[in-house]
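Chain A, query sequence.
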Amino acid sequence: MTVFITGAAGALGSELKKRYEDALTPTHKELDIGNKEQVLDYFKKHLDIDVIIHAGALTGIRPCEEDQPLAWNTNVEGTRNIVEAVLASKQKIQFIYVSTACVFDGHHEMYKESSIPYPENYYALTKLVGESEVRKLPEFLIARTNFVAKEKWPYPKAFTDRYGTYLFADGVAQGIEEVQKEKITGIVHVVGDKKISVYELAKMTTPDVQPMTIDDYSGPPLTMDMSLDTERWKKYKISKP
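Chain A, predicted structure.
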């Protein structure tokens, strides 16, 4: 089985590489997914791809807001290019698109696969449009999730009033491998089994992180409640460091 992983240098991609050790994992320098010709050429050179896990994206809310053309080119055009390359190949390829809890507005909680998306910011919008591109395929899996790398929290503070059903990247990689093996299609939420605040999450790796609230924040709109529920799959316990 030949697996092709985009975004392999990221937190999730790095964990997926551990589970699919022989996967094709081109760097951005080797393959710019925003460049249609490069993507088509890559597929012509790799006619044996069986599974695609599309984890590559520009994910920062502020960077996406500040450079919307780059965010669109990466998250929307990049996804479209891969989808069109799959369609052009006329091969039966299992396609998994890694999406985000942020496609929901965050005004409620425990969003299910059947809940209606309503993005709060440009990053979330690009991921939702990416989902619509993936739907052009005859068979696909949209895996929505919410995770961080299992490493020191990158900021001095973390929100006590922003929530999610978080996992670390290794837990999401496990979930994606399991749904891939089950050949699930449609939409599935790969989620943790309990709702926690960002502050609680950050303290797991960084005990001295300081609390903050949305009143202390200035920047693009945030999805305040990113908690996901699932009607289609099991939930996972967050693996503490």
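The mean pLDDT is 97. The radius of gyration is 17 Å.
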